[in-house]
UniProtKB/TrEMBL annotation, chains A, B:
InterPro entries per record: Creatin/AminoP/Spt16_N, Creatinase/aminopeptidase-like, Creatinase_N, Pept_M24, Peptidase_M24B, Peptidase_M24B_aminopep-P_CS
Short name of any one Pfam family annotated for the protein: Creatinase_N
Stretches assigned to the Creatinase N-terminal domain: 3-138
Keyword line: Hydrolase, Metal-binding
Transmembrane segments: none
Endpoints of the signal sequence: none
Molecular function per GO: hydrolase activity; metal ion binding
Peptidase M24 domain residues: 146-387
Protein name per the record: Peptidase M24
Family recorded in the similarity comment: Belongs to the peptidase M24B family.
Length: 402, 402
């Protein structure tokens, strides 16, 4: 946590304090409290101090772990499990005893707690700016190193995925399937299907290899994208079923370190066999869009500028973007990137309206092209904004045909 | 989703509709919408119908996946990315166009959305009962089967953990460490430390094996507990560092199926070598508490009854519980169990004030004893309440010394 930045950003709060009611699954909570509580707990920022309130089971761990000035437990308020109203009474007392009569809560804070405090005479305002999210966007060197470590795990996982895909056999029109078992010999495998040890190589199999590799490197992920063919044309399709030759296969990995809770994010697109001329052009264009966007990254540039640099490459080549056609369902149909930290998607946004970049912003740059009739291509690097430009944190080759 | 139960439970809502603003990470959202959207989206229940509103990137997938009567996208409301106020205007229009002027939101729904709708003239009430959570608690046969499948993966992972622990060598006082490398030969390994391939066997190493096994079985988990010695005396300590002989090692695994999103949950406690007499007594007591609690499970019994059955075994043996000493930090210091489904902790609670059990409730029963001077012992099975009792979904032996 960057206390100074936090203090600056919260200095002109219209309320006495800032309140978070969430578990460690909420990045604002994790950032402000420093505590990995599995159940929702309260963190109050007031007068430059951080106060945490947890249940008895968490108390010992919270005292050790939390980056807080005070840690209290429910028993300090004579609360045992006594239902909703008693819990809300305790929450109101906890806030008041810190001299706080009004609190801001982040937009996604729980309405149940907000309304309960209001009923008890405490003013609750929504911090529509989500200021702690803004503070989190600028990383300390230690936080950048945490992302860097997660990115090393990411590269190991990408390597495992690329090897599985590159070493796959391809089921032929006539040729018997090598090493195939009964189902493969049955002729149920379509020509062009990638084969691993005689079985169709599926998105699920590659995903499993990626996630096992991440675990072996101290990271976790449950949402890996391995999508080929028409599936790759939907940027949020995680992919399923057999992968095929001559198609683009998008592999998007965004692991989270189990130790630090910081994320990394990287995408590569692979093709076994002969990609179509269109896919080759798309890949070259996307690599140029990546370079153009990265070239635009420097303090003072906005997320919108970086997005524009990527869009221009595509638009000059006649590909639709949201700038030329807000309703397009093909072409470059998402933003150019996003911040990465305790959340895998956080500030700043590299998109229309995207904010000014500052040193310490960790961002991904991920241009891509999509059309169900062609497939999908996306290349994504992760970088940190520096005083005079950026440092690319990604150490993985950009190669289509494997 | 059990539409009939949902309709019954929401029939007497004090509002026109029920609104959820959350991503798939929220179990109520996943249950009501049936859609695995990675970013927050709206689901509105009104007049027995379910309406979903997603961004353009999710539209195709949502139309295929969602268990909704209508699926709309932002473009249907002429919304492109235009910041907060425009988004909130769209949300208000979406609600109003369904003929809805007042909505209930669950207690943990976002206050930002609630207040924005209020500013736009839509009444928002907090559903303090969390009714969808209540509906979710009673499972269909299909949902029970999903838990059963996750539990099979859980048992495979527990087996992998038990084997690692049971097959470990024990570092001796004088004997050189077999197969030890430099660090082990340096005498840095304390006598009694468990060794795997000559290296100290750590909580982290066992956790890795568990989570890799879960992935190989289609499940994920990032919060496994493998805690030995004094660490096991803190029920929420996930454990770290070398494991030791003659100590109790708690292994608590709660995987989630990647395909169905349903969870399982099981705990075993293992000891390599010679447990102390106290640990042996604790283990026997805890096994008796488990049996007593399970015996109390039937429709019409309350969660409080089941909790009482476990407490009585401990109290009769002179061990403290929250019933005999609300402030105790040793003894049986948590509830007896909880519902399991799309959330790993959900209704019903097996605790003081716990609600009446119904057929279809999937619950864990997990008594345990804790004291930093002794260690921790916990045994946890998962079961489904049936018409005339319960069916234990757990197929794993209960054995302490391995």
């Amino acid at each position: 946590m960057n206390r100074e930045r936090l203090g600056d950003r919260l200095a002109d709060l219209p309320t006495d304090g800032y309140l978070i009611d969430a578990s460690q699954d909420d990045a604002n909570q994790l950032y402000l409290s420093g505590f990995t509580g599995p159940d929702p707990f309260l963190t109050l920022y007031a007068d430059g101090e951080v106060h945490v309130l947890v249940g008895g089971l968490e108390y010992g761990r919270a005292r050790k772990e939390a980056a807080a000035d005070t840690v209290e437990r429910h028993a300090d308020y004579d609360y045992e499990y006594g239902g909703r109203e008693a819990r809300n009474d305790m929450y109101a007392r906890f806030v008041r005893e810190k001299g706080v009569e009004s609190v801001s809560m982040p937009p996604r804070g729980p309405v149940g707690t907000a309304d309960a405090l209001r009923e008890r005479g405490i003013d609750v305002a929504v911090d529509t700016d989500d200021r702690i999210r803004e503070v989190r966007a600028v990383k300390t060197d230690e936080e950048v190193d945490a992302v860097r470590d997660a990115q090393r795990a990411n590269e190991a996982a990408m390597r495992a995925a690329e090897e599985l895909i590159a070493e796959a056999d391809v089921a032929g029109e006539d040729a018997p399937v090598e090493g195939g078992d009964a189902s493969a010999d049955d002729g149920e495998v379509e020509p062009g299907t990638l084969l691993y040890e005689g079985e169709p190589l599926t998105s699920e199999r590659v995903t499993e290899e990626i996630e096992v590799t991440l675990l072996r490197h101290g990271c976790a992920l449950d949402q890996t994208i391995v999508a080929g063919g028409a599936q790759a044309a939907d940027p949020h399709d995680r992919g399923s079923g057999p992968l095929r030759a001559n198609e683009a296969i998008i592999v998007d990995i965004f692991p989270r370190s189990k130790a630090t809770k910081y994320n990394a994010d990287m995408t590569r697109t692979f093709c076994v066999g002969e990609p179509s001329e269109t896919l080759r052009e798309w890949y070259d264009l996307t690599e140029r869009a990546l370079d153009a966007a990265l070239d635009a990254v420097e303090p003072g540039a906005t997320g919108e500028d970086v997005h524009a640099a990527a869009c221009e490459v595509y638009e000059d080549a006649g590909e639709p973007t949201f700038r030329t056609d807000p309703e397009t369902e093909t072409g470059f149909i998402h933003s150019t990137g996003h911040g990465v930290g305790l959340d895998v998607h956080e500030s700043p946004r590299l998109a229309s309206g995207g904010e000014e970049l500052e040193p310490g912003h960790v961002i991904t740059v991920e241009p891509g092209l999509y059309d169900p009739d062609v497939g999908g291509v996306r290349i994504e690097d992760i970088a940190v904004v520096t005083e005079d430009g950026y440092e690319n944190l990604t150490a993985y080759p950009i190669e289509f045909e494997v």
